[in-house]
Amino acid sequence: MREAPAADTGWRASPDIWLEAAYGALLEGGVEGVRIQSLAERLKISRTSFYWFFKDRAAILEALVARWRETNTGHLVGQTERYAETIVEAMLNVFDCWLQPALFDPQFEFAIRSWALQSPPILHEVREADRLRLEALDRMFQRFGFDPGEADVRARTTYLVQIGYISMQTAEDLAVRLERIPNYVRIFTGHAPGERDMERFLSRHRAST
């Protein structure tokens, strides 16, 4: 990738600005909305700026997929590996993803999965992400003593419920969702969270309510 001279930065924008515009277009109109001319109009700059940072439309689409992979899959896997003393605490670490879009972006997830319905290569990306995420959850359960068969089913239950929320575009008031979390944790792990578990968890999210 070539570096733009400092004097031209305002005119050419930056790769991150182009990528952010592409992200917004994908969420609003699907992959067909991610067009070089429409992105240039969105940014109010010349389309020639685009080619300073990306070879073609395929390159910025690849960058979008990489961003999704790093954000949603990378963070979810990371949350399963965070330190936890119990499976309840580990599960609440994972639940941070469902309440913090910076960790797991549900709109981005929906847009990528919608794109996958018309693109075999993106479908392959989605299936690979599903595999990596499920394996990470499976390892988390096994780390706390669950046998492989039970860990597999609990991992699938945990993950597929959340993907169902996203795929169905379920609208749920945050306060209601927080109220349901203790029962979700008990069902997914077989253990009810204690008051201290929930207090620590809610303290991380209370500012959002």
Q: Overview of this structure, please?
A:
The structure is a single chain. With 209 residues, the chain is an all-alpha fold. It is built from 11 helices and no strands. It is elongated, with a radius of gyration of 20 Å.
Number of strands: 0
Overall geometry: elongated
> What value does the Rg take, in angstroms?
20 Å
Low-pLDDT sequence parts: 1-10
Which key phrases capture this entry?
single chain, 209 residues, mainly alpha, Arc Repressor Mutant, subunit A, 2 domains, 11 helices, elongated, disordered N terminus
Layout of SSEs?
Elements: H1 9-12, H2 15-29, H3 36-43, H4 50-53, H5 57-80, H6 87-99, H7 106-116, H8 120-143, H9 148-167, H10 174-189, H11 195-205
Helix pairs in contact: 2-3, 2-5, 5-6, 5-8, 6-10, 6-11, 7-8, 8-9
In short:
With 209 residues, the chain is mainly alpha-helical.
